[in-house]
Design a protein that fits this description.
Blueprint (H helix, E strand, L loop, with lengths): L8 E6 L2 E6 L10 H16 L5 E6 L10 H8 L11 H10 L4 E4 L4 E2 L1 H8 L2 E5 L3 E3 L13 H5 L4 H10 L3 E2 H6 L5 E3 L4 H13 L3 H13 L5 H16 L2 H12 L8
Parallel strand pairs: 2-3, 3-4, 4-6, 5-7, 6-9
Antiparallel strand pairs: 1-2, 7-8
């Protein structure tokens, strides 16, 4: 397990691109309070840096991001709150979506639940053909509430309904066809394709990039803050329910939940 002194999000820079790497492989880069805090801080630093043209979000280990840290959720439900100052999922996704600089997600493996929220919040997402996706919320007794805000802005309605309601696993080709990722490429080509996208961004004027991203965001007429606030309340309600408690127990005990047929 990673030591508490080791960062869970590593930051580096390359030719005007801030590279933020999720580095918590012991729990498949789950969105723990500390990881969310570090990611939000590194993102804010990148946005404030005049030398940064774009942000690249990627990960280490066997997965891009497994979603919420269920051990922390269980601890909170048991009255052992984690860092109350840590940004919530809604704040994190909104920060990515509202960043004035392009955010490119380069997946290094599977994404699940809240991890798919990071993919959808990014402006551009490159996935290896081997990557898989699943909205597992319904299978642990909760709903994909908060992530529905960025995900619904990306995915086509029919596929969104299917994968939200079934929790089934789908591959990278299906994710691209549904609009969730920008492009799916052979695993060995992920770096080259991502580098090509970043080189394109490097050729753009910084102010024009910010203005174009604002233009793209304006196409969504919903009030982002209100949407996230509403979905955060829905999420809290379901995570506090009996089904969610059973879903977590089944997950940790590696057994089917009581409702499974």
């Amino acid at each position: 397990m990673a030591e508490a002194t080791e960062p869970l999000v590593r930051a580096s820079a390359e030719r005007g691109v801030a590279i933020l790497t999720l580095d918590s492989p012991h729990n498949r880069n789950a969105l723990s309070a500390r990881l969310r805090t570090e990611l939000a801080e590194r993102l804010a630093e990148a946005v404030a840096d005049d030398d940064v043209r774009a942000v690249l979000l990627t990960g280490t280990g066997p997965a891009f991001c497994a979603g919420a840290d269920l051990k922390e959720v269980a601890a909170e439900r048991a009255g052992r709150p984690v860092d109350p100052a840590a940004p919530g999922m809604a704040e994190l996704f909104a920060a990515i979506m509202d960043a004035p600089k392009p955010v490119v997600a380069k997946l290094n493996g599977p994404a699940r639940a809240g991890g798919i929220g990071l993919v959808a919040a990014a402006d551009i997402a490159v996935a290896p053909a081997s990557a898989t996706f699943a909205f597992t919320e319904v299978r642990i007794g909760v709903v994909p509430a908060i992530i529905s805000v960025p995900v619904a802005a990306r995915m086509h309605d029919r596929q969104l309904a299917r994968y939200f309601l079934t929790g089934e696993t789908f591959d990278a080709a299906a994710a691209a066809g549904a609009g969730l990722v920008t492009v799916t490429v052979a695993d060995p080509d992920v770096d080259a394709v991502t580098d090509g996208i970043l080189d394109g961004i490097r050729q753009a004027a910084p102010d024009a990039l910010a203005g174009t991203k604002a233009l793209l965001r304006a196409a969504d007429r919903r009030d982002l803050a209100s949407a996230f606030a509403e979905m955060a309340e829905v999420s809290r309600t379901y995570f506090a329910g009996d089904d969610a408690a059973e879903g977590r127990a089944a997950f940790f005990e590696k057994r089917p939940p009581r409702w499974a047929l």
